[in-house]
């Protein structure tokens, strides 16, 4: 009996250590998401070019994701999760270590593409692992969003600190690189779960769903991969201008709306993670949160006082950016337990398409009016809600 308890404790300890190591990667990932934008002036000066060119280099990350997501997802199922976590970390380390020393745009763009590939490799190895060590539950994948939010909150403060003291901007790249190097050493000694063993236990859920229902559920979840990302992008890009130009709020109030969105996002992560820890109810939760996000957007559109807009922005952050996208991915993995890596890749591939197309569409709409650009989110949210309700009905009919 003592031997069994000892083995169980070792398993629990290893699981917690692995989870923490994966979360640390996404703390750095949160920094990587904003590091080029936060250092645009310094990079432009270093390359003797304009901010517009730096913005062009940033697009390389999106290109890298689009190229790599389908490939890394499929290969992570055939090889192993740990390999792709390590690949993602190594590519991020190369990106962070080399970018401050990049002397020309071509080299910088190649590094940005490598970062996009690293992002896809990290996702393919991490989301799948967290679901597998929690017996199919998505409670841990939601926490990824919390660590990302912490990273993209701290990085701008670090950049400001370095700039205010006239220190080298490259330190903001070196510090996250050092964190990753230390975590790489840590992860090398951690054992990842056996993929096949976990899949055997989950296959019954997938096999009980008819082929036709599975096709419709797949279409719904692919659409959701696009719409869930599109909603966050539209809100973060346009809410400040919408507050200023359409709602005629003060500058400080308009900027505060984005802060409230972030607070709502972090709160949502904690609440959703707690709920999923108590009960596996991903399908119902995603529907409720999508309908809540839709309601929040309608309230913002109809609001006549700043307080109402602020409250709705907080609610929208909670419901649309509190880990609901990650929860949708968990539902998708339930359908194809033997292909979790491939599913992660294709799900975020559609999210990457949103990151490329949404700025183009909303940019065009903004020429007709800022209100039109922002309220495009209501249409996206409506489409998102319809498709997640479809998915919930399919999954619910299967359980009955």
Provide keyphrases for this structure.
single chain; 400 residues; mainly alpha; Growth Hormone, Chain: A; 2 domains; globular; disordered N terminus; transmembrane helix; transport
Order of helices and strands: HHHHHHHHHHHHHHH
How many alpha or pi helices? 15
Name the beta content range: under 5%
CATH architectural arrangement of the largest domain: Up-down Bundle
Helix content: over 70%
Structural class: mainly alpha
Tell me the total number of β-strands: 0
Mind summarizing the main beta sheet? none
Which outline best applies? globular
CATH topology of the largest domain: Growth Hormone, Chain: A
Q: Write down the domain tally.
A: 2
Mean pLDDT: 87
CATH class of the largest domain: Mainly Alpha
Task: Spell out the CATH superfamily of the largest domain.
Answer: MFS general substrate transporter like domains
Runs in which pLDDT lies below 50 for 5 or more consecutive residues are: 1-10
Gap between N and C termini: 39 Å
C-alpha-based Rg, rounded: 21 Å
């Amino acid at each position: 009996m003592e031997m069994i308890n000892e083995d169980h404790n070792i398993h629990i300890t290893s699981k917690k250590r692995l989870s923490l190591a994966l979360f640390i990667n996404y703390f750095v990932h949160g920094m990587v998401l904003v590091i080029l934008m936060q250092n645009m002036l310094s990079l432009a000066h270093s390359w003797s070019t304009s901010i517009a060119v730096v913005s062009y280099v940033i697009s390389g990350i999106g290109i890298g994701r689009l190229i790599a997501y389908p490939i890394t997802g499929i290969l992570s199922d055939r090889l192993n999760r740990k390999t792709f976590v390590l690949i993602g970390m190594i590519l991020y380390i190369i990106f962070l270590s080399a970018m401050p020393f990049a002397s020309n745009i071509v080299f910088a763009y190649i590094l940005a593409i490598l970062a996009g590939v690293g992002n896809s490799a990290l996702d393919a190895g991490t989301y799948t692992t967290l679901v597998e060590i929690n017996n199919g539950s998505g409670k841990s994948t939601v926490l990824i969003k919390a660590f990302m939010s912490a990273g993209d909150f701290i990085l701008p403060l670090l950049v400001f600190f370095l700039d205010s003291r006239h220190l080298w901007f490259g330190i903001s790249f070196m510090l996250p690189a050092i964190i990753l190097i230390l975590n790489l050493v840590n992860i090398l000694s951690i054992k990842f779960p056996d993929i096949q063993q976990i899949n055997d236990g989950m296959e019954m859920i997938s096999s009980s769903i008819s082929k036709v229902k599975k096709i419709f559920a797949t279409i719904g979840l692919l659409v959701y991969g696009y719409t869930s990302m599109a909603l966050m992008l539209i809100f973060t890009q346009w809410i400040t201008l919408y507050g200023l130009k359409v709602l005629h709020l003060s500058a400080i109030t308009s900027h505060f709306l984005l802060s409230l969105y972030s607070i709502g996002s972090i709160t949502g992560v904690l609440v959703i993670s707690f709920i999923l820890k108590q009960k596996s109810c991903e399908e119902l939760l995603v529907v409720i949160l999508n309908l809540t996000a839709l309601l929040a957007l309608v309230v913002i559109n109809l609001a006549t006082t700043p307080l109402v807009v602020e409250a709705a922005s907080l609610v929208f952050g909670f419901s649309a950016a509190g880990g609901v996208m990650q929860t949708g991915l968990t539902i998708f993995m339930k359908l194809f337990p033997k292909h979790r890596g491939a599913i992660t890749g294709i799900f975020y591939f559609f999210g990457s398409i949103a990151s490329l197309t949404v700025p183009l569409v909303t940019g065009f709409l903004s020429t007709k009016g800022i209100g039109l650009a922002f309220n495009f989110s209501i249409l996206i949210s409506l489409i998102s809600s319809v498709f997640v309700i479809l998915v919930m009905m399919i999954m619910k009919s299967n359980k009955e």
